[in-house]
Amino acid sequence: MLTRRTLLKGAVAGLAGGAALSSRAAQAATPAAQVKIRIGSCVIGLPQAKQAGLDGVEVGVGGPEEKLRIAEAAVRQQYKDQMKETGLVISSFMMGLLNSNPLASDPRGPAWLEQSIDAAKDLGAKVILVAFFGKGDLLEGRELKKADVEVVVRRLKAAAPRAKDAGVILGIENMLSAKQNAEILERIGHDSVRIYYDVGNTTGKGYDVPAEIRLLKDRIAIFHFKDGGNYLGEGKVRFDPIAAAIKDIGYQGWIVMETSNPSKDAVADAKRNAAYIRKLFAAA
Question: What is the CATH number of the domain that holds 21?
């Protein structure tokens, strides 16, 4: 996830399979052959997603205002109207504003989390991407920024009960290794805080992505798929072993595409990438 999504961007409660929020017990008991994937996008809106044959979209919460755009009832009503018109849903929110206004340092961070949780409950989005890139990066080289991590752990731990009551997962996305993320989740100690796993970012970081997925297992709330400026499968990301790992952990839920538009036709490119994902999991 990169800051270009800040203004662009869970499944609706009760939809088939519980989407990305299957309980740990349910995930552990799910045979790999029964993995069910829903496909969304964070780079197009609901009408375009409908044309592309997707299941939903990820939407942004807005810029760094005291009251987030997504907290405005009129904005949420627009999304509700579009969901009704298209028959699609909002898979997730993304808090891209935290890349320039880090959760570790901006005093408005806790209130933004609360506003996003309440709005997600209203719109039926089940995952909120809590971003840690740019100024919010928790790494300095390969080492954690310990002071920042202390604040982040405290703030996410405080927000977790509200998220649980709302039926929402706070999905932290960053450039950390699976081991580092697992340690942070242990410190937070709440099942409503998990990982938003981006296979493009972690490939670029040089991590063993399939091994990371297997290590994190049901601590992964949702996935981002991208492959640089290419169509999925035509860049550096090795999707076949990634899909195998996703099946191995019994994941049930959303894959949100954060893909580029090589042809400059957003709908056509989203449709092409979605077809690749469906074929990938059918053959994995």
Answer: 3.20.20.150
